[in-house]
Amino acid sequence: MLHDDACLKCSLCITACPVVRVDPLFAGPKAYGPEWWRAHEARDAFDTDPHVDDCTFCQLCEAACPADVPVAHLIAQHKDHHRKKRPQLKRFRDFILSHPHWIGRLPFSPRKVSAVVAKMAQMSSHADFPVADRTKFHSGRPYGENIPTVGLFVDCFNRSYGGEVVAAAERVISRLGYQAVLMPSQPHCCGAAAYASGLVDEAQRIAQDSAHALRETPVETLLTLNATCDGTLRDEWPKYFSLSLPGTRVLPWTDWVLETATADFWSQFEETNEAVWVHTTCRGKVAQGEGAMEEFVKLANGQPLPLGIACCGAAGSYAFKVEHEDAAIQLGIKAKEAVHRQGHQAEAMIVDSGTCALHLAQYTGLFTMHPALWLGRRLMQAQSLDKKAEVSNLCE
Amino acid sequence: MPMTEPWIIVGKGPAGLLAASLLLEQGHRVVVVAKGQGSLPLWSGALDFYSWDTKQHPVKAPYDHADHLSGLSLNREQWQAGWEDWRRILQKVGVQTQVSPDHENLLSPTLSGVLVPRYLVPEWQYAVTDPEPVTVVSWDGILDLDLHLWAERYQQHTKMAAKTIQRPGPQGWTARWTPLHWAGYLDSESGRRWLADDLEAALDDTFDQCPVLVPQIIGIRHTEEILSDLRVRLGRPVKEIPLIAPCLGGVRIAERWKEYLLGHGVRFVADEVVGVDGFGVQLATGGALSGRVVLATGGVLGGGFRLQWDRTVINTATGQSIAWSGKPEDLSCIGVSDANSLWGVVGRSAGGWDGDRHGGAGHVLGTVLAWVNAMHEEVYCAAR
Questions:
Q1: Which of B10, B12, B180 to mutate to test binding with chain A, by most A CBs within 10 Å of its CB?
Q2: Range list for CATH 3.40.50 in chain A
Q3: Which residue among A23, A307, B68, B93 has its CA within the 20 to 30 Å range from the CA of B263?
Q4: What residue spans in chain B does CATH classification 3.40.50 cover?
């Protein structure tokens, strides 16, 4: 790539890295990305560093770079080179975890992995795992010809574990006068999980399948429910996989709601000033920035409390792997500290990633949920209040 | 959602964040658009202006040189009030600063043991009005701080004694630790315990009243708490010496400042601005934002200008060419603060200000104040 060799050694990437602050053996993004890459290109070092795998692939390093070096993607190449030196069992585990759309189809989904299984499969016995959500959402065929349509990307996580989230997102879309086409029709993954583990070629294959499936239903607007999928589809596909969705604008569901909803829509939420923590995931910060979810909460008459941490440590399947237990726990503790430090009274937190929600719930003890679910519930409250008012008006 | 038109600030270095904070205080809606990190982590955290005169002698009373402000149409009162505002904003974001009671420069140490004039210094950093004997403690592996050299230069410059103590690093330390690794470790419970025990073991009764200086690695989130605990435990103040960039001081300020702005409804958009006009900005990813624009790009990292192969310079945000002499030594003096433009420009050279000589922070503040004044004048005219 054009900027692979552009590192100025300013070290700003290190200041953005959440892992160097908790992992004494992780040398940092500059060392594992551009410095490793230069040595590797010059063929004066074929060595890889086992701790390169401690990287959560949050990409905050890359977003911090003033010289456009694809720092995180160079680290992914480093991981890929190191992969061949890793034990067979871990490679196999990573291969499976790189296909979350397969895992979602398993008939079981335990909250915890028992110690024996954890040891056998090199998984963490400490982390919370997602539990299947069998809430039905409709199959994805448009139901009216004269109603404007938007695509809703049902990612691998939400397809299996976030039925309620998809249903709530759809409900809000229809309240705004649109119909949602849920896509792709079959379980697929954008490739983010494989890329994060350094399975670069596999990520490309998975992304290709997914792009193929998405092109079956051309839409002008495709809404994403998870910032990682969002950044992967919109930014990484064209840049690293030469894939695109011609004619389709990809944007987060939350941003679309902010763009589309009128003052009338927001006025139905009663003034409760319910405080809610907001965590924009690391990949959300990279893909879109911060503050959109806060704006969203404010408009719905809630009081947003930004959590103020970089990466919670869940990072997709990162926290599920036994060798990442320490770093994931330390990052989780930082989230807890952030809640404690600010001292606000709020019981819920919104976050758009399912795995981050699990991890944050585990460490902060808060009730974590997707913004769609939060807004969907507020909408139901608003509607039931409306009904009550109607009934009492009739009685009078 | 129809709402009042927001201000769009391009860039999130010190000028961008300062402009955002002032607008926020005046009740405006603010969106910050920035690509990259912003230059704050490249700052030590100390904010200075007019530290050296033309003969490279330290300046004691920077306000005596207020003539440099005339280029920005600022008078001494506006200037002084501006510094107070900045200090107050830093306090709001959770950064306490030290300032001399007489509005003179404080003296604060560099990495090589020289005390240099600084105007506003964060609480964690060592700063005094008069030099005094000090004890400096550092640990193996902090290569940027050479204790022997530091003490030698400090004594030469100040005629005061400097006692140095070099200690081994903690268990688990590796040669690849950067100051960020140290800070992360010292922010943790175990790191804090180790630091307090190690400092207590290191210090004996000599110089028992004088302050203890340590390299700037004392945590990110818990710095002030750690330093004040140490003061209680050791019975003497413990303060930091800033290391080379990226500096923990700037990192702490940047993180807290951003968090404060986010908590007050400022939105940060991660994108690159590729076009500016009277209506708003166009973004590299294809979108656009409408609002009144302030360019706060490129004071330090050069994000706002591109030097082309043919030696012409363009403003990356507007696409306009910038006139310059073509001589490399003039590159740093290029300014685009144009009174007739449709957008504000802050943080860049203007009014003959030389950031190197007159202070980078003064340059940031001066341009932000000049822009604020211009804006007020405009509102005043419109109201009439």
A1: B180
A2: 149-260, 264-379
A3: A23
A4: 126-241
Q: Select the residue of B187, B266, B271 nearest A291 (Cβ to Cβ).
A: B266
Contact B37 A66 (CB under 8 A): yes
Mean pLDDT of chain B: 86
> What local confidence, expressed as pLDDT, does residue B299 receive?
59
Can you tell me the distance from the alpha carbon of A76 to that of A70, in angstroms, rounded to the nearest whole number? 10
Q: What is the pLDDT of residue A394?
A: 65
Q: A95: distance to nearest CA of chain B, Å?
A: 30
Structure tokens at B327: 């001589």
| Rounded Cα distance, B44 and A156, in Å | 44
Angle value at C-alpha B303, between B302 and B307, nearest 5 degrees: 60
Which residue in the block uniquely carries the two structure tokens 């769609």?
A: A372
Regions of chain B with pLDDT less than 70: 1-3, 65-68, 205-207, 298-305, 316-318, 328-342, 349-357, 378-384
Q: Between residues 86 and 115 of chain B, which touch chain A (CB distance below 8 Å)?
A: none
CB contact under 8 A, A341 and B301: no
Write the pLDDT tens digit of every residue in B231-252.
999 999 999 999 998 999 999 9
The alpha-carbon gap from A19 to the nearest alpha carbon of chain B, in Å, equals 9
CATH 1.10.1060.10 domain extents, chain A: 12-86
Mean of the per-residue pLDDT values of chain A: 91
Q: Is B171 on the interface with A (CB under 8 A)?
A: no
Buried b (16+ CB within 10 A) or exposed e, A181-219: bbbbeebbbbbbbbbbbbbbebbbebbebbbeebeebeb
State the alpha helices, DSSP H only, in B54-146.
76-93
CB of B271 within 8 Å of a chain A CB? The answer is yes
**Interface A-B: count of C-beta contacts within 8 A:** 109
- ipTM beyond cut 0.90: yes
Structure tokens, A53: 């795998």
**Inter-chain contact B262–A261, Cβ cutoff 8 Å?**
no
Q: Which residues of A touch B31 (CB under 8 A)?
A: 291
**Continuous H helices in A140-199:** 156-161, 163-175, 192-196
Which class in CATH covers the domain with range A149-260? alpha beta
For residue A238, the chain B residue with the least C-alpha distance is B285
Q: For the residues A203-210, what does the mean pLDDT come to?
A: 96
Q: Name the architecture of domain B7-94+251-383.
A: 3-Layer(bba) Sandwich (3.50)
CA dihedral for B71, B77, B78, B81, sign (positive or negative): positive
Shortest Cα distance, chain B CAs vs residue A186, angstroms: 29
CATH for A264-379 (3.40.50, 3.30.930, 1.10.600, 3.30.420) = 3.40.50
Judge: domain B126-241, CATH 3.30.420: no
Cα nearest neighbour of B217 on chain A: A21
Nearest CA in chain B to A276: B263
Q: Is B37 on the interface with A (CB under 8 A)?
A: yes
Q: Which residues of B touch A294 (CB under 8 A)?
A: 262, 265, 267
Q: Which CATH code is given to the segment(s) A12-86? A: 1.10.1060.10
Cα separation, B56 vs B251, whole angstroms:
29
User: Is B20 strand, coil or helix?
Assistant: helix
